[in-house]
Design the sequence.
């Protein structure tokens, strides 16, 4: 019985998803802010909600876009170029505004929040994160092999991989930020470094995706 996706697909998309998810963006900065303001428990609950929001976006895209990508090379090329261009634009913006990435303006006075609220707020951030739509609507289709059939199932499997990566990556950010509150706030240069790394990584990934072809 043929696997839904190949190991090569898993490794290639897993690397792309890790770069998109792990570099500083709305979700990462949200989780860091939760950790600094409320501590580890709220941060990890926020990560859970954020990852569920990511999963929601993935399901919507897979169900709606999968059949189209399977049939149309024109649609695939359009998605690829638009997604790559948008990724480069996000990278440029992240680099330009790297000085605005600060995590020292949080409220340290109240470390309480109900778990339902933490999960709900995380879900809203994840479901409304433009990087989520970019990853699943513009990047994910490029790692699909239409000739293997069952495109929607391929998108779900790879999407679940991204969900797992997001859960672990954001969870690590939240855990470390909770442990290193004072380190994050000690120097504005550390916030700028986050923006620089994120911007350059996003630009590089966007250029790389633009140069790739449709899988056979």
Sequence:
């Amino acid at each position: 019985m043929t696997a839904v996706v190949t190991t090569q697909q898993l490794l290639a998309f897993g690397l792309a998803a890790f770069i998109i998810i792990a570099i500083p963006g709305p979700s990462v900065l949200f989780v860091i802010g939760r950790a600094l303001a409320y501590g580890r428990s709220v941060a990890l609950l926020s990560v859970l909600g954020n990852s569920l929001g990511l999963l929601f976006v993935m399901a919507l895209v897979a169900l709606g876009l999968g059949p189209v990508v399977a049939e149309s090379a024109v649609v695939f090329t359009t998605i690829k170029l638009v997604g790559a261009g948008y990724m480069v634009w996000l990278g440029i913006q992240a680099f330009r505004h790297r000085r605005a990435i600060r995590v020292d303006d949080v409220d340290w006075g109240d470390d309480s929040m109900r778990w339902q609220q933490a999960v709900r707020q995380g879900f809203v951030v994840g479901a409304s994160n433009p990087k989520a739509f970019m990853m699943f609507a513009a990047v994910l289709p490029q790692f699909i092999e239409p000739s293997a059939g069952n495109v929607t199932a391929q998108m779900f499997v790879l999407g679940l991989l991204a969900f797992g990566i997001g859960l672990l990556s954001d969870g690590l950010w939240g855990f470390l930020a909770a442990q290193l509150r004072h380190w994050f706030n000690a120097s504005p240069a550390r916030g700028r470094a986050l923006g620089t790394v994120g911007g350059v990584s996003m630009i590089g990934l966007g250029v790389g995706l633009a140069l790739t072809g449709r899988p056979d």
Summary: Residues 40-71 form the longest helix (32 residues). DSSP finds nine helices and no strands in the chain. The mean pLDDT is 74. Residues 7-210 form one domain.
